[in-house]
């Protein structure tokens, strides 16, 4: 289930004027020295905010989490630095309130238009599995209509995501856009449909791979995961490269299903290696036949792999990319991921739908300012992963039905 039977903001425009909107957003942004260092997630909510303003709502009350404060007030995770950034983006005053529930908060909501409330995770009841009833009641008192625009949190059954009991609970424009793209690739993709998967451990991606094998035509596997595949499938020497012992059982099952479904799996054929997990050193490129010597580890795919991957990517018509192909945070091992990025951009220029599945891959794409060159860069790493695994997102399931 994606969004076909759930209400979205555009379905209730006649109900919006004069209403107090409680909007769950994902402002879990990096904050250093009291300043927001990456505002991507804040920017992503601006269209929904503008839509609400245009439709003459009475006020907008924003709820979000930030970091992992473990149910206690921790100044390190305050959302206060977000308010001036949002105010600058929306060109309107944003009033920050240093709690998210209680009479004091309700009183302050009488004076202003856009309010950003303090980190919901400062209350243990936000993430609790029981004993949250009073907290959820207090959140419900904040407004008249609930809007979920926090795609990145929609896979979590937390109080501010699933527990606000208002008569109307709808998807915001960002959530609708996310589900539109993922709905297209999961239900009616243009073909060939290619998935590019990175990441360290096979066990972390096994559900994803097994679900995608029912849908895709080809899969490129890179990152740390590739070494487990190569060791198990071809008995390649991988030196000190990352190896997932659970892959010994998992990889044969994946390969068997791929054969059964006629899905072609592409693995790297050469590797950029170093004698330790570091950027500098006696870096070498080795081929699959030679293998990786003891004491060395593969940190990126090599130029021949990138060339072969390029030919696969530019012929695809739908591409979902989840996970970098190397340790892109280290400049000497970023070329494989950047080459993949450029190939995806070329594919889009050839008419492909290209989707980046959040998390590290989104960070890579945004770090070189190329997000706009993709069809869609997801704001939710964990949420997009769960959708691609075939799971129902609690934050979507709890929205009002459209019929």
TrEMBL record:
GO terms for molecular function: ADP binding; ATP binding; metal ion binding; phosphoglycerate kinase activity. Coiled coil: none annotated. InterPro entries: Phosphoglycerate_kinase, Phosphoglycerate_kinase_N, Phosphoglycerate_kinase_sf. Substrate binds at residues 26-28, 65-68. GO terms for biological process: gluconeogenesis; glycolytic process. One of its GO terms (cellular component) is cytosol. Gene3D superfamilies: Phosphoglycerate kinase, N-terminal domain (3.40.50.1260). It catalyses: (2R)-3-phosphoglycerate + ATP = (2R)-3-phospho-glyceroyl phosphate + ADP. The keyword Transferase applies. Keywords: ATP-binding, Glycolysis, Kinase, Magnesium, Metal-binding, Nucleotide-binding, Transferase. Its EC number is 2.7.2.3. The keyword Metal-binding applies. ATP binds at residues 205, 298, 329, 358-361. Its cofactor is Mg(2+). (2R)-3-phosphoglycerate binds at residues 41, 121, 156. PANTHER family: PHOSPHOGLYCERATE KINASE. This is Phosphoglycerate kinase. It comes from Babesia microti (strain RI).
